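User: Working on a comparison across species. This one is Protein-lysine N-methyltransferase GF14906 from Drosophila ananassae. Can you predict its structure so I can line it up against the others?
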Amino acid sequence: METELDGSELGTKEYWDSSYTREIGNYKNHGDVGEIWFDEDSQQRVIDWLVKQKIDKQARVLDLGCGNGMFLVGLANEGYEQLTGVDYSANAVELAKNIAQDNQMNITYKVADLTQPQDELGAFDVVHDKGTYDAVSLCPENPKEKRSLYLATVEKLLSSADSLFVITSCNWTEDELVHSFAEKLVKYATIPTPTFKFGGKVGNVVTSVVFKKR
Ligand SMILES: C[S@@+](CC[C@H](N)C(=O)[O-])C[C@H]1O[C@@H](n2cnc3c(N)ncnc32)[C@H](O)[C@@H]1O
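Assistant: Here's the predicted structure for Protein-lysine N-methyltransferase GF14906 from Drosophila ananassae:
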């Protein structure tokens, strides 16, 4: 039996729109790119993993719920060339576009709600999510349905049986993700993340898991 997370403002578009309005101001005034969710280490761990897997520099990479786009900036710095980010907040896309432009990086950004069918986005070799499935799961209304719509979008965006879906979550454990995705996706790898020990039990603060299509 799957339990739903308690709804939160982090699951609403209003929250993200206003938070990126603030971050655009901070970026324009102080050059501060804003929050990198779950810290830079968790972003770098995924980038290092992709590089270590020798994922082709021409691979088509899509970042879901890209926010300020710093994950894609990190990949561009590694030489990846076919980079796309989508977010349902037009303000996030504006911030990400400004940052890419200022760094003279050629990254494509689009506004799209991933809980709606997205037939125009195309197909990708690597689809990445850091904190976006978490945000969708926190939606105060119909979170279960939203998660399932999101997952249907993810499946369609994966171009082939070899395409990878790389997800980093702080709200779901690896077992929970594997269970929730079981109908459409199968676990391919775990990207190790730091563990903590509490009351004799070992846990992870964030989980990074790689899936392929079933
Ligand atoms: C926790 S933030 C993570 C941002 C970025 N991935 C990072 O790691 O820094 C969640 C992001 O998902 C976006 N988001 C939430 N629900 C979405 C949806 N249904 N479609 C597209 N983007 C969504 C939010 O606007 C926000 O940018």
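For your comparison, note: The chain has a mean pLDDT of 95.

User: Helpful, thanks.
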